[in-house]
Amino acid sequence: xxxxxxxxxxLLMDVTLRISVELGRTQMYIKDVLNLGEGxxxxxxxxxxxxxxxxxxxxxxxxxxxxxxDEFFGVQITHIIDPLTQFRSLK
Length: 91
Fold this sequence. Notes:
This protein has 91 residues and is α+β, with helices and mostly antiparallel strands. The chain has 3 helices and 4 strands, in the order H-E-H-E-E-E-H. The protein has a 4-stranded antiparallel β-sheet, with no helix packed on it. The protein is elongated, with a radius of gyration of 19 Å. The two termini are 33 Å apart. The model has no long low-confidence stretch (mean pLDDT 86).
């Protein structure tokens, strides 16, 4: 029966998940949003090194630290939410 488990896990390896990270927030007037264009800069309330939420399919998965790698932003995972703890909090 152990082979059945391996085959089931292999089926899951091709499942697509949407991962998102909220880099920060800001408040803007509608007139300012309408004036945004290519090359516009929007200032956010987070800085490099700040903690950010990591979401998988719109559910909190963990927390990470915002980092810069060369010219790109990245997230260093610092904490993964225990799935059982998260499930118990739904009750």
